[in-house]
Amino acid sequence: IMENYLKEIEEKLKKNINIEVLEIIDNSHKHIGHKFYSKEKFHLHIKIKSSFLKSQKRLEAEKKIMHILRDDLKTKIHALEISID
To answer: Is 53 exposed, middle or buried (CB count within 10 Å of its CB: 0-12, 13-18, 19+)?
Structure first.
């Protein structure tokens, strides 16, 4: 299920942003025991290499990613770390 979900996120991002390289890392295991930990919600680190995003201000680039994943952020993603290269 997890791999399918990461694939869904990858497809959403690639459909909306020109991306050269995309890596999605599930860091949920690092947060077991935290106050708001839930096994239904993920802690993800998205590493993106995109000249399109790099050409924008960092905040604008992050807003674009957050907008694409807005439904996921409400339901399935508890924490999202974004690295843009």
So the answer is: buried
